[in-house]
Design a protein that fits this description.
Number of strands: 4
Distance between the termini: 44 Å
Length: 99
């Protein structure tokens, strides 16, 4: 097993609901902290040969960061409007359209 593999412990314990609640699996890694890590650009350059696919991945990661930030700083409320599927729109839905 390589040092980067995650080891899962699923050993059954008597009355494990009392000990672990909803979580029945613990995950451990032998990976140690490094002084520096590869950047997204470096990893994509080495793993993805298509420049258009690399750009899509970078753009999608940027959108994920925008969504995370919006959820972190905005109060989530119902806006009183619906999307095309009939779902109630939330304040974060509307704020993300502004990006």
């Amino acid at each position: 097993m390589s040092p980067n593999e995650v080891v899962a412990s699923t050993e059954k314990v008597e009355n494990d609901d009392e000990h672990y609640g909803a979580s029945h699996t613990s995950h451990y890694t032998t990976e140690e902290k490094k002084d520096s890590y590869s950047t997204l650009g470096e990893i994509l350059d080495s793993k993805c040969s298509d420049p258009l696919v690399r750009q899509v991945i970078i753009d999608m990661m940027g959108v994920c960061a925008d969504i995370t930030e919006a959820l972190r700083v905005n109060l989530v409320t119902v806006e009183g409007s619906s999307n095309v599927f009939g779902d109630s729109q939330l304040s974060v839905d509307v704020s993300l359209v502004e990006f």
